[in-house]
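Course assignment 3, question 2. Fill in each field.
Student: A.L.
Task: Predict the tertiary structure for the chain below.
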Amino acid sequence: MNFRVQLLKTATAAAAFALLGGAQAATYNYSGDTTGAPTYHRAVQGLSILSAVGTAVAYQTFEFQVDTAGSYDFLSTTPGWDNFLFLYKDSFNPANALSNGVIGNDDFTPGSFGKSGFTSALVTGTHYFVVTTGFDLSDFGSYANSISGAGTVIPSAVPEPESYALMALGLGLVGFMARRRQIQA
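Answer field:
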């Protein structure tokens, strides 16, 4: 009897783990284009000094959090221009590129023009900012970035006006249907 109870507990725990096994690692992909984007004076790879050649480089930021602490891989690829990728913690201020920097990388591997990336440990409850920029002033254009690791990337997106309009339409439809049911009853 005791063996059966133990077996049942083990099977129940295994089933719960299989169903609720925590956050599953996934890759978050996003893309953009720095053409015509705002510019800033970027840091160098070590984030200790400002660049002598990247004095007014176009950039875009991506703000996010993660649902699981652990190691995450960042990769940025560009067609035909030399990119630079940075990670900032808590905030990113283009007027102070040396503040809050975690890591930066110009070439994923030595000589890998148009591909930058790194690995960094991230924690939950923290806002992170990926900054995609160019090596020098003539480096800008489209890019494709990916973040993968221990858990799920949660973007910190501000809804666009179209999203608000769609949400208002949906709420109006729900209200209309509720009122219609009330009148029919």
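Instructor remarks: The chain has one domain: 22-157. DSSP finds two helices and ten strands in the chain.
Grade: pending
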